[in-house]
Design goal:
Blueprint (H helix, E strand, L loop, with lengths): L8 H54 L6 E2 L5 E2 L2 E2 L7 E5 L14 E8 L2 E7 L11 E7 L1 E9 L5 E2 L5 H5 L9 E8 L3 E8 L10 H63 L1
Antiparallel strand pairs: 1-2, 3-4, 4-5, 5-6, 6-7, 8-9, 8-10, 10-11
Length: 271
């Protein structure tokens, strides 16, 4: 009769240890993959939110209009301004879609503000708002540390505030900068800089005196030259007519003289 051999206790313990090590390794790999997926999806969502926020701001800044508004107190406010201490930026923009054909303007008054680490966008349903007009607030992105703005004027100078003091003194509320620069500092992605060309920017025109003198001199000189040419042409025509008239009278006189001479000669011949 043959003896049956089995595993010794030591062999069983070694096998269990190896199986446990393999299981722990597989679990760690699986856990790492799941954590990586979760972190990746979180980063993707955060990046998508940031990109969406930048897209919304890009649409607002690319459609800035020169429409000043009146606030709830009846005071005029510039078309674009960052001088309000309550907001980062306030502006008027065009292109407000109206698919339901509601009785409202296609322009929109928008404001941006930084509350703790949230960048918020708000807009009013009307441009010239009353006391009961409350803005509709939307949180664009979180994790924002600071927002910096700069404005390029018509002299290609970067300014920290807009409108300029001179424009405010003259109550020129419809002026826009050539370029708006925004630098957003994110807690994860760092500083993000965007530069926007304002398509509704209009170059300053010349003064009224310059336009008046230029138009007046140009029109005056043109009229004078035209009159001079017409006068000269008229004088030449008059001189030509006078010369032709004189030549005709001379020919007539010469004919009469010849006829008288012929008549005298006939008289003398008959005598």
């Amino acid at each position: 009769m043959q003896r049956q051999r089995g595993f010794t206790l030591l062999e069983v313990l070694i096998a269990i240890s190896i199986t446990a090590m393999i299981g722990i390794g597989v679990w760690q790999l699986l856990n790492t993959a799941l954590n990586t997926q979760t972190i990746t999806f979180a980063h993707m969502d955060e990046l998508e939110t940031l990109q969406r926020a930048m897209l919304i701001m890009s649409r607002d800044f690319s459609q800035v209009s020169t429409r000043p508004v009146r606030n709830e107190f009846g005071d005029a406010e510039p078309a674009l301004s960052n001088r309000n201490q309550l907001y980062l930026l306030e502006l008027s923009r065009t292109g407000w879609r109206n698919p339901l054909n509601i009785q409202r303007s296609d322009q929109q008054r928008v404001r941006y503000e930084l509350v703790e680490s949230e960048l918020r966008r708000g807009y009013w349903p009307v441009l010239d708002r009353g006391n009961d007009a409350d803005p509709i607030i939307q949180t664009l992105v979180t994790g924002i540390e600071k927002v910096e703005l700069r404005f390029l004027n018509d002299k290609n100078e970067w300014l920290e505030d807009w409108p300029t003091d001179d424009a405010l003194d003259k109550k020129e509320y419809a002026t826009l900068p050539k370029v708006l620069e925004m630098t957003v500092t994110h807690s994860r992605y760092g500083a993000i800089r965007r530069v926007y060309d304002l398509v509704n920017w209009v170059a300053p025109t010349a003064t009224s005196n310059g336009n008046g003198n230029g138009n007046g001199n140009g029109n005056g000189n043109g009229t004078s030259d035209s009159n001079s040419e017409e006068t000269s042409a008229g004088t030449d025509n008059a001189d030509t007519d006078t010369a032709e008239s004189n030549a005709t009278e001379t020919n007539t006189t010469q004919t009469e003289v010849n006829e008288v001479s012929g008549s005298n000669e006939s008289s003398e011949g008959s005598q």
